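Q: For a teaching session next week I want to show students how multiple molecules come together into a single three-dimensional assembly. I've collected the sequence lines for a complex. Could you give me the predicted structure tokens for the whole thing so I can convert them for display?
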Amino acid sequence: MSAKARKKKSTATAVKHRTKKPAATAVKEEKQTAAKLIPIYIMGKRYEVPEGLTIMKAMEYAGYILIRGCGCRGGTCGACGTFYRKPGDYKLQVALACQKTVEPDMYIAQIPFFPANRAAYDFAKLTTAPEEVFKLYPELFRCVACNSCTKACPQGIEVMDAISALKQGNIAEAARLSFDCIQCGLCTSRCFGELAQYHMFQLARRIYGARIIPRAEHLAEMVKAVNEGRYDRFLDELKQAKEDELKKLYQEREVEPMTAGEDWKPKDTTYL
Ligand code: SF4
Ligand code: SF4
Ligand code: FES
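A: Of course. Below is the structure for the complete assembly, covering every listed component.
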């Protein structure tokens, strides 16, 4: 392979290993923590990284620049699905690289993307008939109930149960069970039946949200009030306000307590 081709190939990979200077953030982190170094293996190569770092930060510390496999850094986008294994342990473990902290002698491989079948459909024409889901994803019935998907889910979702619910035509139950899915694709990477569970779940949640769940009456009332101009005057006042006034309003606003019940209302009901 020519040098040019090698360069092109390396930039197309999910992560790019930098051999010269570590990232500025990693340097800062190193100075601040001065933590004990532990060995980990990234893509089979050994590195020493400070303990306490997340897998994602440890990779950056080791010199990797994450151009894929990294998004929210907060455990919600699903971009950083990772497999790892500890020496002497047959079990393949799963993690989100932005959440899991490194452990000595971890062998790590990130799965930033996994090719999976995603059906094309015109959502406006879909109904709640389960047969329509079956037609879009006939491979649903290739599930052999091995439960590997559930074991691979970093979100703790009962993936196989959600698939079973879909097979039984229970779209609402599939949507409920898969509510916390972050589309990381780790379940799909382990599936014997070659199902793209997370795309199926997304379809189930779309149908549930648009066609099954009862409409919220209070939301309809609020939309009507907005359309009728109930808040126009208040919005105009805010638009005219100076920055200091806006800051004061924001800082002094009444915040709903974390433990508030369903019937909580602010003391000042001017804007309700
Ligand atoms: S259900 Fe699959 S895609 Fe969704 S979070 Fe779990 S492993 Fe990831
Ligand atoms: S991994 Fe695939 S085949 Fe196994 S239970 Fe899950 S969906 Fe079914
Ligand atoms: S970067 Fe978004 S879940 Fe890890």
